[in-house]
Amino acid sequence: MSPITTTLAKALNTGLRAAMEDDPKVIVMGEDVGKLGGVFRVTDGLQKDFGDHRVLDTPLAESGIIGTAVGLAMRGYRPVTEIQFDGFVFPGFDQIISQVAKITYRTQGAWSMPMVIRIPFGGGIGAVEHHAEAPESFFCHVAGLRVVSCSTAQDAYDMLRAAVACDDPVVFFEPKRRYWEKGSLDTDLNAATLGAWPPPSFRTVVRRPGTDVTVASYGPSMPVLSAAADAAATEGRSLEIIDLRSLSPLDLDPVIASVRRTGRLVVVSEAPRESSVTADIAARVTEEAFYSLAAPVIRVAGFDTPYPPSRLEDEYLPDLDKVLDAVDRALAY
Question: Annotated active-site positions, please?
Answer without folding.
Answer: 131
